[in-house]
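Two proteins follow. First one:
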Amino acid sequence: MQPKFSVVMPVYNVEKYLRNSIQSILNQTISDYELILVDDGSPDNCPKICDEYAAQYPQVRVVHQKNVGLSSARNAGFAIAKGEFVYFPDSDDIIHPDTLDYFKRVIETVPNVKYIISDFQDVTEEEAFKAAGYDHGIEIYSRSQIQVLFLKRQIRILAPGSLLNINWYKDNNLTFENNPYGEDQLFIWKALLHVDEVVHIKKPLYNYLHRPGSIMTASGVQKIIKAYPFFLDLQNLYQRSENAAPFVKKYLLPFWVRGILHSSAKIISYSEYKLVLVTFEANKHCTTLKSYPSIIVRTLSHSYFLTIVR
């Protein structure tokens, strides 16, 4: 029988965390799912762990491949997914036991939903299984609303915490691209061009682990610089699209650049930061952000572009 959910988990060098992440899937209060573990050429004991779970649990399947990166691993798992909806949790994070059941109830309440997001909470290793502290039900946003809210950071969306309808996903040719920095944001923005509405579960169903050595903290300046053309193309895509909110058409790329300058200033050197300023055409984007409605954003943006933050 076709499962309701395909849970696709890319696996690479997370031996310390993998069992807990897999177990959080197997602990779900419903059984209408498959778990696809994609071993992306992991050099540690992860391949063996994946095979052990596949041998023990019939709903678990394993893909072994050479190391090609997170995006390609997700795409490989999606290619063999049999469910109606797909979910992409990371292999060092934890989902709450009622996550898939909550998704199922939302699908029954909003039958034509294609994209569901939930709140998530940032946790340390010691808090990995931290319980959700609230449940405020659901809210439905139109395409324009969710685009603007996401741009303004008034709502946070995680790609690994998003549930997507598989037929809709295929019909719109969605895929994860091998962008070296910010691949999740890139995917989300492209998905948001094709939704009619997004359902937001106002309960933190996903525990997002922050740890040393993760992709975000390990990314260097060259990865950051190589990401810029991807988002430049994204800006052009939004400017050409009738599905893009006017506010987002104007500010998507400048606001993303502002965010990258803020985050990269914490992990790169003085000279590297100056290189980023030039490569990202900071002066041009600073000029655009002078008309941004928030005075805080205008002020901080100007400082990021004109000051070297160490």
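Second one, unrelated to the first:
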Amino acid sequence: MRLTGPVIANPRAEGTYVVGMPFWMWATPSPTTYGPVTASATAGGVTVSATATVTRAVWDMGDGSSVTCPGPGTKYTADHGKNMSPDCGHRYRRSSTDEPNARYAGSTTTTWTVDWTVTAGGAQTGSFTTTRATDWTARIHEVQVLNVN
């Protein structure tokens, strides 16, 4: 069973984001990045089956805060305007200008819950968790407006 870190769709490496604006985060789900993924094996009359699913994602925002999301997040589209993400968002309070490479260095860690069953004359069941992480960066700029009359 192959379990990998999330494939981050946003923030985009080439993107520039703005202080104070809603910052939407989302990942592109697949069986190996969010599940569910199921596998089983049999040997000597014993069968082991397991199903793994991501149960949460914790986004370390690089600015000292973190956001816990129940799933991969909602993709931003223009019709959302300046609204916050309904399930996975953040609002940066300062620019990343003073950070290394002028970017916040973040990471997203997914927690996988693996439920397993062993059959060999009687069933035994259990579960465990494991984590996978993906690093990303975000360039956050400050917008300053002058009102000249």
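SUMMARY FIELD: The chain has a mean pLDDT of 93. The longest strand covers residues 123-141.
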